């Protein structure tokens, strides 16, 4: 077994790390005793060094690489960006990313909201919520395997009279029960992108439900009481009381899911590898950078991802602050 | 800066997953639901819950079926033809076999523990300095670190990989630990800073008057009070690292040297995509630990999740 040396490595790393921090703190304490006023710098220094090496420097390097050719050495101006917006394969990548980012947040949030309202104050609410929220805890690779199995397809023509083909994918079996032909879900474009999106909806609905449920519970009782005394009906209550009260939370949920959809990688990589017209930016970035060795194009895709994410995050942060200010 | 230093506790969304309240007056949603003839509402909820469970339940059942049956008949046939086995789990756990997942399980653990501890340790220090000490350029630095949360990790991968090759640590655990630490720091600092600001200034000042230095205050007063914030970030980071594929694909070494379970499962889907007996059992082995962590610490998880929504 080779686990013992690995665990030892791990312990050693933790100890080493602790020692480095201890030395820094010791120096800081010494410095403070001698009347040093800027002890804060000592505390911030390790983090600052790490984020500079791990985030700032690489981001600038990638920005520069995005203006270079495939080898990353010869300056080519904005050629890589032009390629992303003109090459037909890359346009499919952009189209799919847009689909992911537009469809998933709304569907997942709608499902999460409906479910949150349905189970609110119901018997066994905690269990009911955990069921929907659990996909959030597992890896996207695990979720992809779960759904690849749901989608698995067997060619009905492959069997014989004596030994007919049975579907092992549940969705295709449902089609068979309904006397429809089984479908090769992950192969047929453009629907296959939607079948991949379903996986993300399955995961994110739980997130939406949890956040919105908490927000629903935070609505002041007086408002609800007053509306009820006015004889407001169920749908009016939802439309004019519940929905406006939780609007900031809804926006946060929508934008948060949109961000994870822009960056979606694991699901596409695991389920189709980006083949059959299902490619998205994050996966195309990975393929170009690490398989095709087209560093310039890969870097440009990463930068585009960055540029797309920023406005959503800025909006998200503003909404968070607005909801705090209320 | 005060705008950014509001705590996640103030957010309308906090307190997610509170226990179902019994005596409280009905909320708006409850009132709305009551009018929506209750049986239909319950039915809809139950149907949704079942639909959400079927995919996982199907693969879970499959993981206990004999390998030959899995590819011949659907998992739903076990209700009429029950036939179960533990062989699939033996195949993925027995370290003697080539399909064994156990070295990767060890790697996942070895990767995750430092990748959670290191950013917590560093971020506690930095957050304390940002919250309670004064130094030149403090505000600018804090905003900069906060802003770094928006950097998608894709932007950093290739330059980091080259750096690791130069430092001769590429493919080692160090490369993975460092990457996760660096990617996790901005969120950790932000979260912990917000929490530290909540601690009453009088406490700190009293200690300062008594002659305690910042180092002493940090260890004696701050760390014990920070437990909820550390838990929130810790669980978030734990699940992030444990479930990560991108960092593992980019930085882990070949074979079972340093790669975590996610990479093993990913490779298995590529090379043996129809070996469902391995995939199903493997997937569930990889899910056990995060699900346990999640179920036991749900409350903290949601808080971390929300604050970390922009990370990645």
TrEMBL record, chain A:
GO biological process: transmembrane transport
Transferase is among the record's keywords: no
Annotated TM spans: 12-32, 39-60, 98-118, 130-150, 193-212, 246-265, 297-317
PROSITE patterns per the UniProt record, alphabetical: ABC_TM1
Keyword Cell membrane belongs to the record: yes
Top-rank lineage group of the source organism: Bacteria
Compartment(s): Cell membrane
Domain ABC transmembrane type-1: 94-316
GO cellular component: plasma membrane
Topology in the lipid bilayer: Multi-pass membrane protein
InterPro entries: ABC_transporter_permease, MetI-like, MetI-like_sf
Family membership noted in the UniProt record: Belongs to the binding-protein-dependent transport system permease family.
PANTHER family cross-referenced by the UniProt entry: ABC TRANSPORTER PERMEASE PROTEIN (PTHR30193), OSMOPROTECTIVE COMPOUNDS UPTAKE PERMEASE PROTEIN GGTC (PTHR30193:SF18)
Protein name: Carbohydrate ABC transporter membrane protein 1 (CUT1 family)
Organism: Luteimicrobium subarcticum
Automatic annotation (TrEMBL), chain B:
Compartment annotation: Cell membrane
Alphabetical list of Gene3D superfamilies matching this protein: MetI-like
Main location: membrane
Keyword set, alphabetical order: Cell membrane, Membrane, Transmembrane, Transmembrane helix, Transport
Transmembrane segments annotated in the record for this chain: 40-61, 104-128, 140-161, 173-192, 274-297
Region (Disordered): 1-26
Low complexity: bias regions: 15-26
Keyword Transport: yes
Annotated Gene Ontology cellular component terms: plasma membrane
Family: Belongs to the binding-protein-dependent transport system permease family.
Protein name in the entry: Carbohydrate ABC transporter membrane protein 2 (CUT1 family)
Native source organism of the sequence: Luteimicrobium subarcticum
Organism taxonomic ancestry: Bacteria, Bacillati, Actinomycetota, Actinomycetes, Micrococcales
